[in-house]
Write a structure and sequence with these properties.
- The structure holds 2 protein chains of 2 kinds.
- Chain A is mainly α.
- Chain A is built from 22 helices and 2 strands.
- In chain A, strands 1-2 form a two-stranded antiparallel ribbon.
- Chain B is mostly helical.
- Chain B is 64% helix and 0% strand.
- Classes of the chains: A mainly alpha, B mainly alpha.
């Protein structure tokens, strides 16, 4: 399936319907209290087994796009980020809405999201194929080195605590090991428990970590359902003049979003913060930021939607997720027996082209739905959590059970839900855990395959330039947090010397 | 920023958990046999990872004992677990009960004699009750919701998704 054929498929009733449902659900979870895009994608995964891979990928990509966008509504009308990436929109979107312009705030945010999405699509389509054609020449040693680098990168770059991030990644790797060792056929780490012989499936683990722990968090905050400003259509339609006035800001913030999206582990939240801060620093009216500034809304919303294309580039070309929701998308591809990475372009071009086409069409659909359906989506904010949360648990249970029809997976999901709560309470980032879980088997099989070919020699890891460069980058990233701490402490100890 | 008391307790629990898990994996992996023609065999990766985890766990434990910060995740995908987002009272017992009910629901489904439909209806009813004020009118609404939702879920998952729910 070529890119043109993928677009044509999206125009068929089936293709269009699936994409539209994905976008609508994605927007809805941004609005619905207690559900996040990551949770929606995890919950949907088991039901995509009944679809073709093309439709499943289209649905999840559309949810991914819709999920990034939907947080705008609660951020503007309730000052609550429906998704974490809408945190900066809360500051000015809500203030503009409170001054009597909710439609204007939503319209500007929505239009900026569209521009950010389209520009990031262009980056995705232009950058991903050449990068994949380079990556396809990688052998097992290079692939292993890329995964090591990704794990350290995602632990060190973004999450605030290298120790916690890396330990979460290693913990995720350990979870992937019980069961039959595929290379040797030897049963390992089952502790004599029959149910462990099948290993832990990724799906119940991911469902537990995201769906169950979010339900617990929502139950904890059950009293916190806030009142919302009423949404109106007045000002929702943005004029051509607005695009001209805010054009440079949209372009700059989108480029920031694309670039940050490409970096593993950083994600849409950081992109919107960086774009917001940049817009404020370059603004002629920085004092208006935080009081309902249009520039602020444009910057934050362009940037967070622009990450969607950027973040798909490392997933598709190297099999490395950019952030947490993306790591669920990565898990989804693996669960559908698709190996993300350069070979996806060669073996499953229909999947790559479906992702490309859906990414663009979903942004347009998101824009239309959010423009004309704003009143409907706004009403979802008032659905009581007492009805939503138990249903989420039932869906999670059915999703985990439906995978193999074994009750063990339900218990796995619940236990990992508890672990997710503990990790969140300890402020341990979850993204490295999922990356470790999903990529550990690949890293192991690649290195073992490489070593079998090299008669047990590790030298190719040093002799092959790409593998060596990746490992050097990984080493620098590993050492850098310690150097930073040492440099911070050294002047202090010098000052204390008499 | 200094972490709260709850975060410190969670951090201690997390560090002890990873040390325990890594220790158990290290012990179990050490006993695995080598594989023919495979330089690494099935035990090397679990051992490497458990060494790394033990090292990180000890560093984190030392920092905690010396009251040094471990840092914290800059972003969270589980919203509202660590900080209240508004001016309202948090309900820890509701969270605990919600989780307990989920475990009870899983146990109920594991005893296949109970059946999906009654187990789900009872679960939805009890969860709906604890997640809001107990008022007569609300109890009736939640009961109707529980029964209707359970029936719809039963039909959808049996008929469309062909799940074996017995």
């Amino acid at each position: 399936m070529t890119l043109a054929e993928a677009f044509v498929h999206l125009l068929t009733p089936n293709g269009f319907g699936i994409m539209l449902v994905g976008v609508a659900l994605g927007i809805s979870v941004g609005v619905l209290p207690g559900i996040t895009a990551g949770m929606l994608m995890a919950l949907t995964l088991p039901f995509t087994f009944h679809m073709s891979s093309v439709d499943a990928v289209s649905l999840l990509t559309a949810m991914f796009v819709g999920g990034v966008s939907g947080g705008l509504i609660t951020a503007t009308l309730m000052r609550i980020p429906g998704e974490p990436n809408a945190i900066m929109t809360c500051l000015d979107g809500y203030q503009l809405a409170r001054r009597g312009y909710p439609g204007r705030a939503l319209g500007l945010g929505n239009s900026s999201s569209l521009v950010g999405g389209i520009l990031s699509w262009a980056a995705l389509v232009l950058l991903a194929p050449p990068l994949a054609s380079i990556a396809v020449s990688f052998g097992p040693f290079e692939n292993f080195a890329v995964i090591v680098m990704a794990l350290i990168l995602i632990s060190s770059l973004s999450e605030g605590s290298f120790l916690k991030g890396l330990s979460a990644g290693l913990l995720g790797m350990l979870v992937s090991y019980p069961g039959i060792d595929e290379s040797s056929g030897i049963m390992r780490l089952t502790f004599g428990i029959t149910a462990f012989e099948g290993g832990f499936n990724n799906l119940p683990v991911i469902l537990g970590m995201f769906a169950i722990s979010q339900v617990v968090a929502d139950a904890l905050n059950i009293e916190g359902q806030a009142s919302a400003i009423r949404a109106t259509m007045r000002g929702v339609f943005v004029s051509v003049r607005d695009y001209i006035v805010h054009g440079w800001n949209m372009l700059r913030s989108s480029l920031i979003g694309i670039w940050i999206g490409i970096l593993p582990g950083v994600g849409a939240t950081v992109a919107s913060i960086v774009a917001y801060t940049t817009a404020k620093n370059l603004s002629r009216k920085p004092e208006e930021f935080g009081t309902g500034s249009e520039e602020a809304i444009v910057a934050a919303e362009s940037a967070n939607n622009a990450t969607t294309g950027g973040t798909l580039i490392p997933i598709l070309t190297l099999g490395i997720p950019g952030g947490l929701t993306d790591s669920i998308l990565l898990g989804a591809l693996v669960i559908h027996n698709l190996q993300p990475g350069p070979l996806l372009f060669k073996n499953n071009p229909e999947i790559v082209n479906t992702i490309f086409a859906t990414h663009l069409v979903a942004h347009v659909a998101m824009f239309v739905l959010m423009t004309f359906g704003i009143a409907v989506f706004a009403r979802l904010m008032q659905v009581p959590r007492a009805f939503i949360l138990p249903i989420v648990i039932v869906f999670s249970v059915l999703g985990a059970y439906g995978l193999n029809n074994r009750p063990f997976d339900i218990w796995v999901m619940l236990v990992f839900g508890l672990l997710g709560v503990l990790l969140e309470l300890a402020r341990v980032p979850l993204a490295p855990f999922v990356v470790g879980l999903v990529l550990a088997p690949v890293a192991e099989s690649e290195l073992r395959a490489g070593l079998m070919a090299s008669a047990g020699s590790f030298m190719p890891l040093i002799e092959r330039p790409v593998a060596c460069s990746m490992l050097v980058i990984a080493t620098i990233l590993f050492v850098w947090p310690f150097v930073r701490v040492w440099r911070r402490l050294a002047p202090a100890s010098r000052n204390q010397t008499p | 920023m200094q972490p709260s008391g709850a975060t410190r307790v969670a951090e201690f629990s997390y560090v002890l958990l990873i040390l325990a898990v890594a220790g158990i994996i290290w012990h179990a992996a050490s006993a695995l046999p080598p594989a023919p023609y495979d330089p690494l065999g099935p035990k090397t990766f679990p051992l490497w990872v458990s060494y790394g985890l033990i090292a990180l766990g000890l560093v984190m434990l030392a920092r905690l004992l010396f009251r040094r910060s471990l840092g914290q995740a800059a972003q969270s995908m589980v919203i509202g677990l660590e900080d209240a987002e508004g001016n309202y009272e948090r309900r820890p017992w509701v969270a605990v009960l919600t989780l307990t009910l989920a475990f009870a629901y899983a146990a109920g489904l594991s005893f296949r004699s109970i059946g999906f439909l009654p187990a789900t209806a009872v679960y939805l009813f009890l969860s709906g009750i604890i997640l809001g004020p107990i008022e007569r009118r609300r109890v009736v609404v939640v009961a109707i919701f529980a029964v209707v939702a359970a029936v719809i879920l039963d039909i959808v998952f049996r008929a469309i998704f062909k799940l074996d729910l017995n």
